[in-house]
Amino acid sequence: MDNNRRLETEVAADRDQSAFGSLLDGLDKKFMIYKIDSEGLILDTNTRFLDKSGWTPKRVLGKPFKIMFPDTKDGKADLMKVWRRLRSLRPWQGDVLQVTKTGEPYWVSLTAIPVMSGTQHLYTLMIEADRTEERKLREKLESIAYTDPDTGLMNRHKLTEEAEQLIQTDRHFTFVYLAIENFHSLFDPGDKEAENRILSEFVHSMKVYFRNSRFARIGMNEFAVLTPLGSWFAEGFLQFLDEHPIQSDMTGIPVRVSGGIAKFPDDQQSFKHLLSASSIARHRAMRDGGGLITSLSKPEQRAVARRLRIEQKLPGALEEGAIQAFYQPQVDMTTGRIIAAEALVRWEDRDLGNVRPAELIPVAEDAGLISALGAHVIEAAARQAANWKQEGIGVPVSCNTSVREFRAGDMVTKIRDILTRTACPPSLLELEITEKFAFEAEAEGELMHQLKLLHDDGITFALDDFGTGYASFRYMQTVPIQKIKIGEEFIASFSTNEKVGRIVDGLVRFGHSLGLFVVAEGVEDEAVYQALSISGCDAVQGYHTGRPMPADQFTRLLREQALSEKN
Ligand code: G
Ligand code: G
Ligand code: MN
């Protein structure tokens, strides 16, 4: 650097100094401040910094600022983060742990600002606010948030984090779900002391048996163990409990334990899956009489994994329009005309393959997605019905519903919105409800109210799977139904089983006596068709008269029908 240039920088530095002067005065009162040069050496400090850090100016000036960071892995990582940023002359802000001269840790919120004069780096200002109290409070809150107060074990929240950490670092482990089945019969209700004694004894047994493992309490009487030990070892815990019964007041306590095991990564590959698979195994163990720790078979493990994959992919599939409605014709027995289309949900996924409704609907219900799924199908069906009407080949569409969609509360608004949006008249929409649904609606004013409102709008209702549910017909008087659909369970053995034949005859007559339209479902061949015809059944739906099919195929059928009627 020539003389002129040096002079320029010094002048700039002076100007800078004075500009900062008053600003620094203000900061000085509130913050710990020091300056470092471009090598990271400490140039200057204020008094607050010296008070907190325990350094004297004589000792600290000229030392590398890395002395402020603890000599630990985290400390070094923090230091590197800050330093890398400052070396590229960009400011850094964040919370870091610092140490005093004698090694006492304290938290600060650090703002590090490289001060420039033009392109020249003058120094870096390190401004720190003490965060130790906040940190202490936060750590205390975290420990409360992470531990079960009765046992001191981790809670479910912390367990999730721990397990996910193991999974991320690809560490093999066994997930053991344990439950004391007879927990509540082991002490008098309200005897908190006895309850805690039993808990602590049980926890002690777990800790003695499962070495090098992590334990969590995940329910009143439920625990989880993350252990590197194998499943055969986990199963042995029951024998250990037999041989070393847990004690209270010198007497053995007859705990009955059941459990489920799932291994990472052999059985399941995520925490949710491990929890689900082990919980299902545990419930089955309990159902089979308890006193058993067991795991699911390979096919069952796969079923759990598939179920959760369905749950995970469903929202995306709904958004992308991967879920469609297929349509199956209902055919009038006297005229042979298609008089309605039942909309049936279909989902073909690249990984999952064909997700059948029987699989999909229960998952959607459990995952709280049934309303979204139902609305999606109803909207597609209503739009289709409006199109057919426009073309002059209109038939009503019939949509399946789940009682949970109505329990969500806004079903009426939702359906009205759909009909408005799709320009589908209410008379072209039929909703199928199950007997179970009708039975519950009869007792629940809120459900009944919704059915009535929709019925008043002109929407019709069909009772699906009739005869297979509840042998209670009281709802027939109050629930607004216009149609019954006799379930395929009956129809399948109709022509071969005389008793079933008489039941179907009876169901048809029963329906007619109430003035209802009767449809038979699952009609697969001519013999059944003929027998139903003799019974006086009004319409059929089944493979014999048409399988569920995509909309365009159904449209062709309707066009052909319209053509043949013109001729
Ligand atoms: O098409 P499939 O036979 O696989 O249908 C099985 C079951 O799924 C049937 O009982 C049918 O009522 C139900 N289902 C089909 N589509 C829907 C739908 O969109 N919503 C609801 N809630 N159930 C449906
Ligand atoms: O429960 P619900 O009635 O909504 O179920 C109708 C289901 O029955 C449809 O999913 C359809 O796939 C199926 N289905 C339709 N026709 C036949 C048939 O002729 N035989 C059998 N086994 N199933 C049928
Ligand atoms: Mn149906």
TrEMBL record:
Residues 33-74 form the PAS domain. SUPFAM superfamilies: EAL domain-like, Nucleotide cyclase, PYP-like sensor domain (PAS domain). It comes from the Bacteria. Pfam families: EAL, GGDEF, PAS_9. Residues 171-298 form the GGDEF domain. Residues 90-143 form the PAC domain. CDD domains: EAL, PAS. Residues 307-562 form the EAL domain. Gene3D superfamilies: 3.30.70.270, EAL domain, PAS domain. This is PAS domain S-box-containing protein.
